[in-house]
Amino acid sequence: MLRGRVRGAKPILLLAHIDVVEANRSDWIRDPFKLTEEAGWYYGRGVSDDKAMAAIFTDSLIRYRREGLRPRRDIKLALTCGEETSDIFNSVECLLKTRPQVLDAAFALNEGALGELDQNGTPVVLEVQAGEKVYQDYSLDASDPGGHSARPTKNNPIVRLSAALARLGAYNFPVSLTKTTRAYFEAEAWLMPPDIAADMRSVLKDPPDEAAVERLWAINPSWNATLRTTCVVTQISGGHAVNALPQSAHANVNCRALPGLALADVQNELVRVLADPDITVAPSGEAGIQVPIPPLTPKIMDPIRQVAAAMWPGVAIVPIMWTGGTDGRYLNAKDVPTYGLSGLFHDAEGPHHHGLNERIRVKSLLDGRRFLYEVVKLYANDLGNFSAPRY
User: Which of 336, 370, 364 has its CA nearest to residue 105?
Assistant: First the structure.
């Protein structure tokens, strides 16, 4: 922590997780657990998710202290674990339960937003994340007494579950826009080629143009995920012997619900779409958390605009809803508004989060270092109300 001058002023919290997802060395071109610099990129598991921000925040506090900076507010840094395995243990959740004062803040800066480069490597979009989808897994189970495989019946659990999952795979939840996602597509439409821009404006209509949604989905799956709740089967298992009728079949369905949609309604919709009363549907793993969307007030946005204009003149600042999940859900639920902001720009191929050969551009890392260093200073010297009326 770097102490501020004004007693009683709530601090700014800088949050980054230092745990990473697993990586199989034999699948990677380079050692996933050794930082490799090659052709202007850093490669390694976690370089983008989320060790880049952890390193930047740590470096910034060291620089502030060496420079003798005395901000008006405290600046707190929390490097946490368990973000990638929150159903087992999550340190943010644990701290909020056992030592909530440690993470109390006027607001927090977190992962959950990137930046977009054009084909020439020029920054064109700087994202600011406010709100995220709600993560919830569901267990689907079908059962039967089974028997000898030479005497098949019409109640094979694997067949029934497969048919139900095919119905789910063909189903789309309805398009539903929040203020954040509407603002996102309005801003993106100005930056896209005419045909894509037209489709983006078509999905903003009431009712949205479903054909336009399909075309956008084919170009970028994240656009579809931004527009609607998604539920997708991620694991299946069943049967106990090659020469026996299966006694059970199981599937995990992973849902990412839009903010404001009750998870009970998601479960009821799954039951309806599966259309098999003998398949049980039950939540599994960590219970999803519905949290308020933090407001993008001028106090939040103005420092971003100021520093971005100096570093990347003409860059579009675009609000986004994160379609994945972050530790921000725990903080938002405890009235600590949490925003995704990084200043880390990527090309169309992206950073390969959770995939093979995760990477970050060296220049992007250095630019993000400069950006967050300057923005955090501006926030820490402002004693205004960061949660004033919505931006």
Answer: 336
Question: Which residues, including other chains, have CB under 8 Å from residue 95's CB and lie 6 or more apart?
Answer: 78, 80, 102, 103
C-beta of residue 386 within 8 angstroms of C-beta of residue 106: yes
Answer for the pair 142, 165: CB distance below 8 angstroms, yes or no: no
**How crowded is residue 3: how many other Cβ atoms within 10 Å of its Cβ?**
11
Residue 316, SS3 per DSSP: strand
User: What is the secondary structure of 135-184 as a DSSP string?
Assistant: EEEEEEEEE---EETTS--S--HHHHHHHHHHHHHT--PPB---HHHHHH
pLDDT digits (tens, 9 = 90+) for 302-324: 999 999 999 999 999 999 999 98
Contact 239, 147 (CB under 8 A): no
Q: What's the mean pLDDT when you consider all of the chain?
A: 95
List Cα–Cα distances, 183 to 28, 288, 321, in angstroms. Answer: 38, 25, 10
Cα angle 364, 293, 256; round to 5: 80
Q: Which amino acid is at 343?
A: G
148-157 in b/e form (b: 16+ CB < 10 A) is eeeeeeeebb
Give dist(CA 109, CA 61) in Å, integer: 14
- 173 in Cβ contact with 231 (< 8 Å): yes
For tokens 């919505």, what's the residue? Answer: 390
pLDDT band at 390 (very low <50, low <70, confident <90, very high): very low
| Alpha-carbon gap, residue 76 to 61, rounded angstroms | 9
- What are the structural domains of the chain? 12-132+290-380 (3.40.630.10), 134-178+199-284 (3.30.70.360)
pLDDT category of residue 384 using cuts at 50, 70 and 90? confident
What is the chain's alpha carbon radius of gyration, rounded to the nearest angstrom?
23
Query: Which among 382, 380, 374, 381 has a CA at the least distance from the CA of 60?
Result: 374
Task: State the Cα–Cα distance between residues 11 and 339, nearest whole angstrom.
Answer: 15
